[in-house]
Amino acid sequence: MKHLFVGFMAVAIATACSPTDTSNTAANSQPSNELTLDYEYYQLDNGLNVILHRDNSDPIVAAATIIHVGSSREETGRTGFAHLFEHMAFNDSENVPRGANRQMIEELGGSRNGGTWSDGTIYYEVVPKDALEKLMWIDSDRFGYMINTVTESALEREKQVVKNEKRQRVDNQPYGHTGAIIRRALYPAGHPYSWTVIGELEDLQAATLADVREFYDRYYGPSNATLVIAGDIDIEETKALVETWFGEIPAGQDISDLAPMPVTLEQSVRLSHLDNFARLPELRITIPTVEEYHPDSYALEALAQLLADGKRAPLYRHIVEDDGLAPSVRASQNSSELAGEFSIAVRGNAGVVLDDINASLERALADFEQNGFDDRDLERIKAGLETSFYQGVSSVLNKAFQLATYAEYAGDPGYFQTDIQRIQAVSREDVLRVYNTYVKGANAVYTSVVPKASPELVLTGSVDAGIKEEAIVAGAEPSFDDSEADYERTPTVHDRSEPPLGPMPEIQTPTVHDAIADNGVRLLSIESNELPLFNFELFIPGGVWQEAEGQYGINALTASLMNEGTAMRTPAELEDDIGLLGSSLSISSSMDGMVVRGSGLARNFEATLAIASEMLQSPRFDEADFNRLKQQTLTRIQASETSPNSIASRATFATLYPAEFRAASPTVGTLDSVASIELNDVQAFYQQAVQPNNASLSVAGDLDSKRIQTAFNQQFSNWTRHSDSASHSNILNEAISAPRTELPNWVFVDLPEAKQSVLFMGTQGPSSYSTDAFDLEAAINRLGGGSSAQLFQTLRIQLGYTYGAYAAVYGGRYNGPTLAYSSVRANVTSEAMDVFRGLIEGYEAQFTDADLATTQNILIKSQTRAYESLSQKTGMLSEMARYHRPSDYVAARQTRVANMTTDRVSELLNQYLAKDQLLYVIVGDKATQYDALVEQLGEPLVLDRWGQPIQ
Asked: Per the database record, which ranges form the Peptidase M16 N-terminal domain (predicted)?
């Protein structure tokens, strides 16, 4: 559901005039306790709707352009066009240098992307404020002056990229086909939602240049679009720039909005698919409902949460707790422009028959019909909405998204006021009415997706969904060259040459307050009063390094169990008390420790911290909860057996590090190790691990440091070190070094019928305690640091082998891995591996002064947007605490980047990316790919999906 749910009444928004009136309107005066979001909304002569919003809290600018065309405007047999065109639009345009559309934003210190859904396409960027006019030059040229540059070769390349995306996200993933199965069954043939956004492979391949031109001419006109620019801007100057860059683009064809097209089902449909990748059975029930902004959509969203979300929710109680059939259950209302769907999804435990899940689900609904729901749950849902609203406008990009979406689909950027009123007005009677109207006894689409080898798990009465799997055929993709189009440049009144950058923005690091609590915990905070929110992380070091061999995964299991109530509160009471504050609280695990995360409204900080203290110091440790969470963990480990990236990651860690070193095994543990853990083991681990030794609290928000320190000292006064904590303290405050292993030639893991092959390169990198970690990240930026780097540009842009390719330094307390990775279409695995390896091993020799200058510009200017959100600020503080950074470490990093030399880059690459230290891992279909790889690379070490050698 796309509604922005807002849970408070005193919200005001100062709006300008309607889009047909271009006059200025000053902001209305507002009471001091109300949020004012000022914007100007107007329309250019060519029909482009424009929204401008000024926010000078950070020296950055965001732009979002929504084109009101998604897959719903396509036709049967010509699906996937809207998404394909989104890809095409990031290629060449007439007045921007070739490749700049993908590279320049990143190299200016910004980020950019796009997305397509059933009802629209969006392009968006965030840049330092000095790049505002360059951003408008690029965006307007992509919008109005790109179609003449499209060649047959460019079209073929993007077809291959989109097909790679489909293989990666759909064909090569468990349950990836479920969405397509549901759409075909729920909507009648020809309905705009009867196909998926990404479309069919054969439709994509059949697309012609004439089709692309027709699509552009019809839909990509200013009169079918909304542009939002938000951030540190001058409104009048920006209006002039918008007129200059966008004003002379031809208006395009008149496109009428589609009227809602809700559907009904004459009878229920049961469909099944035997999934090559799934290891767990999944049942989904989908019921047709109402479109976006329909008055009933609000109550349906509340109904979904009441049925599935929470300890008292009947679906959760019956399916998860009472019957133990699944680790979780989900329900949702998804309203789109033309129609809506109410969905219940259950991914069962291994071997569970879906008939049993369906029977349990029916008992849960009968329970709901008879007993209704607790009013506290509806109150809890509403209480979280105020926080959700503020978080939804916590960045300039989020503001741009919200304003653009409301303007384009509701006709008013300020429509969220109606959303506020409607969600606040949802009553018990509304919830029960929509249940009886839309859900009770409704015909539905039932989809059973089960492991290929377990057809006996399918829901009784199901018929095969008829999914056609793509055959892996070498040489099946047409070839393409990289030739440029021959065209006459479109005449323009305005000179569309590249504009200069504006003045360099001042980069200011937030002021950090550093204190020590009474019990020795370090308290780091940043005061930020833009919004009445807080965000905190309480980090307790130790993590998996305290686990005993044979009990791997106990750190994660202990953290999970600590969320299940306290000695004073049942799980349901704990959930109520957190939710009614509008806060969120959770305890999670990481390799290096445990983290208590909290967020909410600043006025509820003390109350939230008090509950966090209780969760940490007085866990409930109930036997039934433990057994359920243990089973959930085993189920999730088992499910990861078919995730290509999880398989590649396990193989990399298991080979790169000695078997006796903890990092060689997954942080969540293994099936054997988790199965061996008992509740008394968790209780003993808790006593050892959850201590304040070297712990730290990082807080960002509308709170001063004195208030934070006072609250922490009050709530954690009893959390003190144990008498035997000396040895505990010693292992928490130092780097851990893993010995190197003798690496095999390369590693292969068989994933039969995989439509893509996963390529990993791993090498032991530096610990995050070392400045080498940051320096190495800078050194490999031009290798895999984003879409402008070599891996992406070569494997995706030039060759069309992949959807993406990247490299990163992972660090941690130990000498964690540096990884490069990509997923390539299966029928070019050996060719892609040759290029992948060549780029990595040749990187140091080809690194130039120009590469260094680009890296320096990216990393320095990207700091303008590094600390915008509270979570970014909290992350900065957490890094300071975990790795003993000084308070000026951010500025010191900037200096290190500015002073970096090519000699330093070479030193780092020779130390950490030397050829004899590189491990290559490939996960793919052995039947079609193995022989060619052996011919190219020699004999590999063959592992199973758990990272163990196959004899």
From this structure: 50-174, 535-657
Residue 739 in domain: no
The whole-model pTM stands at 0.89
- Locate the DSSP E strands across 289-411: 330-335, 340-347
Distance from C-alpha of 319 to C-alpha of 310, rounded to nearest angstrom: 13
Q: Are residues 643 and 561 in the same domain?
A: yes
Question: 580 and 698: one domain?
Answer: yes
Same domain, 773 and 802: yes
CATH number at residue 196: 3.30.830.10
Indicate whether 570 and 660 sit together in one domain: yes
The answer to whether position 254 is within a domain reads no
Q: In this structure, are residues 90 and 792 in contact, taking their beta carbons and an 8 Å threshold?
A: no
Q: Dmax over Cα atoms in the chain, in whole Å? A: 81
The answer to whether the beta carbons of residues 44 and 218 sit under 8 Å apart is: no
Same domain, 193 and 222: yes
Residue-level length of the chain: 951
Query: Are 553 and 693 members of one domain?
Result: yes
Per-residue model confidence as pLDDT tens digits over 167-189: 888 988 899 999 999 999 999 99
Q: Cα–chain-centroid distance for residue 478? A: 32
In the sheet where 282-288 sits, what is the strand order?
330-335, 340-347, 282-288, 445-451, 269-275, 463-464
Question: How many Cβ atoms from other residues are within 10 Å of residue 865's Cβ?
Answer: 25
Q: What is the pLDDT of residues 914-926, one digit of tens each?
A: 999 999 999 999 9
Measured over the CA atoms of residue 634, residue 640, residue 646 and residue 651, the dihedral's sign is positive
Question: What mean pLDDT value characterizes the chain?
Answer: 91
Q: Read off the pLDDT of residues 484-543 as tens digits, 9 standing for 90 and up.
A: 778 889 999 999 999 999 998 888 888 999 999 999 999 999 999 988 999 999 999 999
Q: Domain check: are 153 and 296 in the same one?
A: no
The reply to whether 478 falls in a domain is no
Dig out the tokens for 882 from the structure.
């975990």
β pairing state of 269-275 and 463-464? parallel
3-state helix, strand, coil in the chain (%, to 5): 45, 20, 40
Decide which of 246, 281, 298 is a domain's last residue: 246
How far is 754 from 775, CA to CA, in rounded Å? 37
Q: Specify the number of domains making up the chain.
A: 4
Give pLDDT tens digits for 109-149. Answer: 999 999 999 999 999 999 999 999 999 999 999 999 999 99
> What is the pLDDT averaged over residues 890-895?
88
Single residue among 670, 698, 730 that ends a domain in this structure: 730
CA distance 583 to 577: 9
As a whole number of angstroms, the distance between CA 537 and CA 832 comes to 41
Range of the domain at 236: 39-246
Are 723 and 754 found together in one domain?
Answer: no
8 Å CB contact between 146 and 213: no
Residue type, 333: Q
With respect to residue 626, please indicate whether it lies within any of the assigned structural domains.
yes
Residue range 368-411, pLDDT digits in tens: 999 999 999 998 888 887 777 777 778 899 999 999 999 999 99
